[in-house]
Design a protein that fits this description.
Blueprint: E1 8-16, E2 22-30, H1 32-37, H2 56-68
Antiparallel strand pairs: 1-2
Length: 76
């Protein structure tokens, strides 16, 4: 793995959702210096928006697909 133990942190929080089912949220934080070492930094031309956002139907289709797939996005 390209990161040392001190460069990556993850947290997990579990709680019941509005429907009573338990949910988990995971947060991953990576040290900025570690990302820069991999060539990922704010000065990269690809880190800024370089064109218009896809149309609304494209986002909606992606969300529907995520709900159908096992392990997909959040369930409504």
């Amino acid at each position: 793995m390209p990161f040392t133990a001190g460069e990556v942190r993850w947290d997990r929080v579990c709680a019941p959702g509005a429907d009573g089912h338990w949910r988990a949220w995971i947060t991953v934080q990576v040290n900025a210096g570690a990302l820069r070492r991999l060539g990922l930094h704010p000065e990269q031309p690809t880190c800024v928006v370089n064109g218009p956002s896809p149309p609304g139907w494209w986002h909606a289709a992606g969300e529907r697909y995520a709900r159908r797939c096992p392990g997909g996005g959040p369930r409504a």
